[in-house]
UniProtKB/TrEMBL annotation:
Residues 30-208 form the 3-keto-alpha-glucoside-1,2-lyase/3-keto-2-hydroxy-glucal hydratase domain. This is DUF1080 domain-containing protein. The lineage of its organism: Bacteria, Pseudomonadati, Bacteroidota, Flavobacteriia, Flavobacteriales. It comes from Ulvibacterium marinum. The keyword Nucleotide-binding does not apply. The keyword Signal applies. GO terms for molecular function: hydrolase activity. Coiled coil: none annotated. Keywords: Signal.
Length: 210
């Protein structure tokens, strides 16, 4: 098993199974590749800002040399309880800045009586965004979050990927808040922080490959 861990101290560690070897590197700019974004690293937190360049779509921060297939990804995420202004999540199986899977959250819908079922979303970029999926498969690729976090505070996310199966867990729960099948044949690729709003916060990234 290979594990990739981003500690609160902004230390990136790579473990290699039975060899029990470890490489520690500060998670500074050279460990990440930005796309349509600007990243600020401070006190164990990555603050990602969307540059809003025309035609470039979502903001991404790719973890260099990541090539994830099956396993689990965990991290803490924080957005804002501002309607239509906070879309924060994680990209995986990325081939480039356009082709990737992502799971993202709309914190402003976490506690909304009318919109709570649109709180967590899976997308397959670029072919199946939220609009296309909601139109073709209403309620299948998005859901309410359980348990319900404070929309203005940090919340813990765990994403399990096994083949085409994607399961999303929140706040240490044993019950997935979203379970979907991937809509493409990509079986591995890059991991990245994802955002489609002005800014978002990320910390404590842990990746475990099977």
């Amino acid at each position: 098993m290979k594990s990739l861990i981003l500690f609160t101290s902004i230390t990136l560690s790579l473990y290699f199974g039975g060899l029990n070897a470890q490489t520690n590197t500060k998670a500074v700019q050279e460990n990440w590749t930005t796309y349509n974004s600007k990243a600020v690293y401070e006190n164990g937190t990555i603050h990602l800002n969307h540059l809003r360049n025309d035609g470039e779509g979502s903001a991404l921060l790719w973890l260099k040399e990541s090539n994830f297939k099956d396993g689990s990804i965990e991290l803490d995420i924080k957005g804002k309880d501002v309607r239509g202004q906070s879309f924060v999540g994680l990209a995986f199986h990325g081939l480039d800045n356009s082709h990737y899977d992502a799971v993202y959250f709309r914190p402003f819908n976490f506690k909304s009586p009318e919109k709570k079922d649109n709180a967590v979303q899976y997308i397959d970029s670029p072919d199946n965004g939220f609009y296309e999926l909601r139109k073709k498969f209403p309620g299948k690729y998005e859901n309410a979050v359980r348990p319900v976090p404070d929309p203005n505070d940090w919340f813990h996310v765990k994403i399990e990927i096994t083949g085409k199966k994607v399961e999303v867990y929140l706040e240490g729960s044993n019950e997935p808040t979203l379970t979907v099948e991937k809509l493409n044949d990509r079986s591995q690729g890059m991991i990245g922080l994802w955002m489609d709003s002005m800014d978002g916060w990320f910390r404590n990234l842990t990746v475990k490959d099977r």
